[in-house]
Amino acid sequence: MNSEAIKNLIKDWRVALLLLLVVGSLVGIYLAPPTPDKGLEGNLQFGLDLEGGSWLQMEFQSVVVTYSTDGSVGDLVENLRTGLEAEVIQIDEDHLEIRKSVSRADLEPIFAASGASIVTYQEGVSSFTADEVKRILNDKVNALGMQDARINLLTPTGSEYPQYVRIELAGVDMATAQEIVGKQGLFEIRVQTTGNETEHVLYGDQIAGVGVPQRDPETQAWGVGFSLTETGAQAFRNAALESGAVDNPRAHHLVMILDNETVYSAPLDGRLATELRSGPVSSLSASTGTGDAGLEDAMTLQIHLRAGALPVKVDIVGSGSVPAALGEQFKTVVALAGLFALLTVGVVVYYRYREPSIVIPMLAINLSEIIILLGISRFIVQLDLATIAGLIAVVGTGIDQLVIITDEVLHEGRVPSPNLYLKRYGRALGIIVASAATVFIAMLPLALMDLSTLRGFAIITILGVLIGILVTRPAYGKIIMAILSK
After folding, report:
1. Which residues of 95-248 form beta strands (DSSP E)?
2. pLDDT tens digits, residue range 249-283?
3. Does 334 lie in the same domain as 455?
4. Is 50 in contact with 384 (CB distance < 8 Å)?
5. Residue 327 and residue 379 share a domain
6. Are residues 80 and 46 in the same domain?
């Protein structure tokens, strides 16, 4: 092809879009922050398999009970709390979450004494608690600069409730992984005195309990209720009196600090100031605002009030690690496997057509598809053995679809007239779209599930299908027409 033909080809929007995405992906991998100097790896995020690191699988020490009662639900909950010395959460009108590992046989006498009976008993936690655990763990690892941690909730077959949580930390040793799970942050409440000065009131160990985010029916503002120990309530009252907060509450903020970072600051409530004049107050509430933003802030503050502690006790039931040296070895093997797959595809295609002008565009399109996939995966998924398998699968299915296009548009070894070409190309594209839709539907459930090993494979496969249909196949159709017509 002469230079004029190449210029016209590049000006076509399909080819221009392909080139733009390839260049953008290379910039994202190699030139964009935070690590533009890591060699061939660039900014790609590698998972536990290829980076080395540790994983922990933990079991929730909690049960969810379906119950029936003709008596007071409040009395039942209180009897369970005092009898088991455990936190009990009412999920809905007939489900209770008991945050303690307790057998059904031990529960039945307490239910019977309260005029209630157990309908079903399952180990695990409610979806709300499971999501809260995941938020807290994410908050912990993100605070430590490990945004590529992978946290998955696992629900046994036949159960409705998550029973395990698995956390994978690439590049982290086992001791550090266990510390991340078990370590609580240093939480402190301070009161504003004069100007911007504040003084210490109490630490997080004086917080006896933390409630769930709730909305005030009058103001519609979201907030989080929490209770203080007797010592904490007295310290809080003394600080409010000494600072003058009870006399001028709007001028004295309560400031909550987690690991030296302010997470909440708001003036003392007027009604609370009045109550504090009479005596200590153990039940408090922090308002965070209205709407979705207020709810989000309330959920975040709930995590901070717990000082990073999980709402339910967990026991480590499984763990493992991949040495960094073994991870580097896996990277080398995976790179060689990908290169071998691409070369093998090239040999097979050349054997079929015996024409370099067909083989080279096919391989170039296939390679560009992989580059775009890597550029996108840098932001949304880690590269582990499963996702690499997905990339290799994309190479194979991509070539299959390019062969379909090539075979359809060629007529007795030549490119047909433009009208016939468009008709044949449209028919080939229809076959490809139907095939891609089948793959998309098959992979979608795996992509939505919290299955640590299969989710990455499904996401990469779906992305490969979408990029193929929307970008690379249309570009290849234009390129192969321009090349073969010469």
Report:
1. 95-98, 116-123, 150-154, 164-170, 187-192, 198-203, 207-210, 214-215, 221-228
2. 888 888 888 777 788 888 888 888 888 888 888 88
3. yes
4. yes
5. yes
6. no
Considering all CA atoms of the chain, what is the largest pairwise distance in Å, rounded to the nearest integer?
98
* Contact of 401 with 432, CB cutoff 8 Å: yes
Q: Are residues 362 and 414 in the same domain?
A: yes
For residue 267, report the phi and psi dihedrals to the nearest 5 degrees: -65, 155
177 part of a folded domain: no
Assess if residue 143 is contained within a domain: no
In the 8-state DSSP scheme, what is residue 294?
H
Same domain, 71 and 28: no
Residue 107 CA to residue 96 CA, distance in Å, equals 12
- Two tokens, residue 48: 């536990």
pLDDT averaged over every residue in the chain: 82
d(CA 481, CA 485): 6
pLDDT digits (tens, 9 = 90+) for 190-213: 888 877 788 888 887 788 888 888
Q: Mention every residue, 6+ apart, whose C-beta is less than 8 A from residue 20.
A: none
Amino acid making up residue 275: E
**Per-residue model confidence as pLDDT tens digits over 450-484:** 655 678 888 899 999 999 999 998 898 888 887 77
The DSSP letter of residue 247 is T
Cα gap 413→127, rounded to integer Å = 60
Range(s) of the domain holding residue 279: 187-307
> Does residue 144 lie in a domain region?
no
Say which amino acid occupies 160: E
Q: What token pair was written down for 12? A: 């076509």
Domain count, the chain: 3
Domain harbouring 406, CATH code: 1.20.1640.10
Token pair belonging to 184: 């609580």
Question: What percent of the chain stands above pLDDT 90?
Answer: 8
Beta bridge partners of 267: 253
Q: What are phi and psi of 63, to 5 degrees?
A: -135, 150
- Whether residue 478 is found in the same domain as residue 332: yes
Contact 350, 359 (CB under 8 A): yes
Q: How far apart are CA 394 and CA 385, in angstroms?
A: 14
* Token pair recorded at residue 135: 């938020």
